[in-house]
Amino acid sequence: MADAIVVEDLHKFYKEKHAVCGVSFRVAKGEIFGIVGPNGAGKTTTLEILEGLRRRDRGSVKVLGLDPQKQARTLRERIGIQFQSTSIQERLKVREALTLFSSLYKKQGNVDRAIESFDLKKVENTYFKDLSGGWKQRLMLALATIHDPELIFLDEPSTGLDPNARREIWALIKQLRDASKTIVITTHYMEEAEKLCDRVAMFKGGEVAALDTPKRLIATSMGMNYLSFLSSTVDRTKLRAIHGVSRVECEGETVKVYCADLQAVSLQVFQLAQEQKWKIDAFCFEMGSLDDLFVQLIGGGEKA
């Protein structure tokens, strides 16, 4: 499959700050590619360079075969950018906003089709200021795709939405992917990255700390699986000695035993508890997740 985006050794400096430090990755045509990371990790700067909104200092970037720094005007006809809702005048009606954005492109979009595709009929004559968060995000997606772009950039597409509205936005994004669009998403929600993205790049300190499919990334966090139980009689040293246990945490009577193989380790814990006559209650299991890997790799982020 051909690549929609190729980034090699990308660097960006802001005075003394090295905001993007030798980033390299590829985005295949037709995939949903996620970029996650704390504030200040370089993900927004990278996105703006890909969109042709910011100049790079070093490295090579190709978006749909074009250099966004040198061919930004041509590129903008072929990409869609989801702007923040603050960029829309409050007294514009939904249909008016779609008509206005459509007029900005050589290939003017079909406003009626956009209203139908994003289920905006019931609010087409509603002022932007009167829309709920979910309807605003629907409109922002419609505006980003009004000219039928090949590649769509979405920056935090479901931030601030309730769970139902968030899932509705996810369904619309999947609908775009099913229409053979390539989509790049930045998000703070690990669940969003896991549910939507074919691959995810985790940014830290201007670098890519990890990049793979959500399934494979989660597999690398299997050492963060743990079994949890209540006990005041266990011997932490004996638990640590069990084969496959990576660490043991005790807080009050709550005991957490971290491991890769939950089934094998839990059997050994039960056997040891019987031998040592430990009393344990409220036994449960927790699987490693993308959230766990994110916390392990990224930790705290500098706000910027």
TrEMBL record:
Main location: membrane
Subcellular location field: Cell membrane
Annotated PROSITE patterns: ABC_TRANSPORTER_1, ABC_TRANSPORTER_2
ABC transporter domain mapped to chain residues: 5-230
UniProt keyword terms in alphabetical order: ATP-binding, Cell membrane, Membrane, Nucleotide-binding, Translocase, Transport
GO molecular function, one term: ATP hydrolysis activity
InterPro entries recorded: AAA+_ATPase, ABC_transporter-like_ATP-bd, ABC_transporter-like_CS, ABC_transporter_ATP-binding, P-loop_NTPase
GO cellular component, one term: plasma membrane
Pfam family, one: ABC_tran
Signal peptide as annotated in the record: none
CDD domains the UniProt entry points to: ABC_DR_subfamily_A
Stated family: Belongs to the ABC transporter superfamily.
Protein name: ABC transporter ATP-binding protein
Species per Swiss-Prot/TrEMBL record: Sulfoacidibacillus thermotolerans
